[in-house]
Specification:
The chain is mostly helical and 248 residues long. 79% of the residues lie in helices and 0% in strands.
């Protein structure tokens, strides 16, 4: 019963945050994290210390892992993994320092657990966190490649779509807009056609497509796509993409 309650809180917080309902999402995610023995720092400054701690732990530990079957991993560990995933994705546009702190923690738990799908997911999101800064791009490339290899091995559509999206974010960070556009469109097709509940991933992929079209000067194509993007965002109550794309 406790696991089910936390899982429902996790899903609710994730949807509130990625949909732009920040106050409700933060309140729920704090409750969820407290239930799991974790805490959300009250300020970005307070989140800096755990970020440095988890990244240092990750550097000391390394990326080695032993692959394990899902049924061999206890439910509490899986729920902690999924909780860190929700905190990472939900907080990304609200509190980036807390988000990347949870991303490093998420990857540490995933490496210890060794479940290939969740590990591929953790590698992908951590690679995106590292790609934002030049000093982290060498590690980001390593993480992206590991994520892609694991995703292909487990043949899981969400892992495959997410690893391609992470590759696209890496390309965007390097100013490789054609590559970013291609990868983001591939990720969009996979996530849209073969995954359920991948709202955050679809939002990010859609934004990469929009920015890539802008930087490539494809304004006609951008104008053609925007009405459908905005209509879907507004009909689904997705405030994040409605506001961010609607300003273009």
């Amino acid at each position: 019963e406790n696991l089910q309650r936390v899982e429902l809180q996790r899903r609710g917080a994730e949807q509130f945050l990625i949909g732009g309902h920040i106050d409700r999402g933060l309140e729920l995610i704090r409750t969820m994290l407290a239930t799991m023995g974790m805490a959300l720092p009250r300020t970005p400054r307070a989140a800096l210390r755990p970020l440095l701690w988890w990244r240092a732990r990750l550097r000391w530990r390394g990326l080695h892992f032993v692959s394990r079957d899902l049924n061999d991993i206890d439910p509490d560990t899986l729920l902690r993994l999924d909780t860190c995933w929700s905190a990472t994705t939900g907080l990304l546009l609200v509190d980036m320092i807390s988000s990347v702190s949870f991303s490093a923690r998420h990857l540490l738990i995933a490496l210890d657990a060794g479940e290939p799908y969740r590990l591929s997911r953790a590698l992908a999101i951590e690679s995106a966190a590292r790609a934002a800064y030049p000093s982290g791009r060498k590690l980001s490339r390593t993480l992206v490649q590991l994520s892609k290899d694991l995703a292909a091995h487990v043949d899981h559509p969400h892992a495959i779509g997410l690893s391609r999206l992470a590759d696209g974010l890496m390309a965007m960070a390097l100013g490789q807009w054609k590559k970013a556009l291609l990868l983001a469109e591939e990720a969009l097709a996979i996530l849209r056609d073969h995954c359920v509940g991948a709202t955050w991933e679809l939002n990010v992929a859609q934004n990469v497509v929009v920015w890539a079209l802008m930087y490539l000067g494809e304004l006609g194509e951008l104008s053609r796509r925007l009405p459908a993007i905005l209509a879907h965002a507004r009909s689904s109550g997705n405030l994040y993409i409605a506001d961010s794309v609607g300003d273009l």
